[in-house]
Design goal:
alpha/beta; globular; 2 domains
């Protein structure tokens, strides 16, 4: 009986949480300044990305924003494949494209080192960051720029993953769910996190916090930078759910790669603020109680809670996917729901017992 009471409490908390974030998605806090035309610098750190970089650059360089108002900078992060040769080719074809080879730094490590060197070189007032395995829409730069009214210092965005089968589709819905939650909580003035492959910030805001040289190192450098800028309370922040600024990323190709991604995100999430931890505890607690109730108490009660949870997840995801024009991904919902429930339960153990993070051939 105690299990059933706890389960009822957690499913109520979960559904209230879903209703609140749905309200924030349907009535978002967004700022569009049609007169804003800042100089924009797209910065991309690339490490052994010759399979993806060309598609990425083709998408980033063909924008509706005037060519004289944006530049693209690739930092070749000690690649051992054909990444640099691709950079040379694009540098010979586009006047607003340049690249540099990352130099070793005693203070900065990995991607933060590469990004810092790219940002240092950037001439734009606003820095846009994406990854070399991503593609963007032609409207990405323009409609990101329109978010930069005078008080806005950092803008997050949503990313989905390219999907042609269930393994990729469940990952894409997972990203849609998590980033949709991040966007919704940001609208509620609860700035939890954002993602580094669709992130922009004023260079002045970056300099205000001392850049990556003064921010504590993390395997989720985007999260740490976002939180540092928000903590200054000098700059406003938004995360629009706008299909014109949607980014598409390559999914993980194997369970091993997916495990490492979740481990890295989980390790970085240990610095999450209290409100974020509450959301995670509610989700973990509900999943655990569903399984415990099914095993030791009422199978009907557990099934009812599971169906209510799935209904809430589906309605939230459908709202996000509709806004982004990707309703077709909902055909992978049952795969996502099974995967989502499993990793929410397993993630705490992966974070604390999974060992060091391996990312892009480096160990942290």
């Amino acid at each position: 009986m105690m299990l059933e009471y706890l389960l009822a409490t957690f499913i109520l908390l979960y559904l209230v949480q879903i209703v609140v974030v749905l309200f924030a998605v349907l009535l978002p806090r967004d700022v569009i300044d049609s007169t804003a035309r800042p100089a924009m610098s797209v910065v991309i750190a690339a490490r052994n990305e010759d399979q993806n970089l060309e598609d990425c650059l083709e998408s980033v360089l063909h924008q509706t924003y005037p060519n004289d108002l944006f530049e693209v900078i690739v930092i070749n992060d000690h690649s051992t494949d054909g990444t640099e040769s691709i950079c040379r080719k694009f540098a010979s074809q586009y006047t607003n494209f340049s690249y540099l080879n990352a130099r070793e730094d005693q203070q900065l490590r990995g991607k933060t080192n590469a990004l810092d060197q790219g940002i240092e070189k950037a001439r734009g007032d606003v820095i846009l960051v994406t990854d070399a395995d991503c593609t963007v829409l032609p409207t990405w730069v323009e409609w990101t720029a329109k978010r930069y009214g005078k008080t806005v210092g950092i803008v997050g965005g949503l990313t989905l993953q390219k999907a042609s089968r269930w393994f990729e589709g469940m990952q894409s819905l997972d990203w849609g769910f998590l980033l949709g939650m991040a966007a919704a909580t940001m609208s509620l003035r609860i700035p939890l996190s954002t993602i580094g492959n669709n992130l922009s910030f004023r260079k002045a805001a970056y300099n205000d916090v001392g850049g990556y040289r003064t921010i504590p190192f993390s395997v989720t450098e985007d999260f740490m930078l976002f939180q540092a800028i928000v903590r200054t309370k000098k700059w406003d922040y938004i995360c629009p759910i706008d299909p014109r600024v949607l980014v598409m990323s390559q999914p993980c190709s194997s369970w091993k790669e997916l495990f490492r991604q979740k481990q890295r995100w989980g390790k970085g999430g240990l610095d999450m603020k209290f409100s974020g931890m509450v959301i995670m505890v509610i989700s973990f607690g509900l999943d655990a109680l569903i399984l415990l109730t099914f095993a030791f108490s009422s199978q009907i009660g557990a099934l009812g809670a599971l169906l209510l949870k799935m209904g809430g997840d589906y309605f939230f995801l459908r709202t996000i996917m509709k806004k982004q024009g990707h309703l077709a991904l909902l055909k992978y919902f049952l795969w996502f729901e099974s995967y989502f429930m499993f990793y929410v339960l397993v993630l705490p153990f992966v974070v604390f017992l999974g060992g060091r993070v391996v990312w892009k051939g480096r160990t942290y």
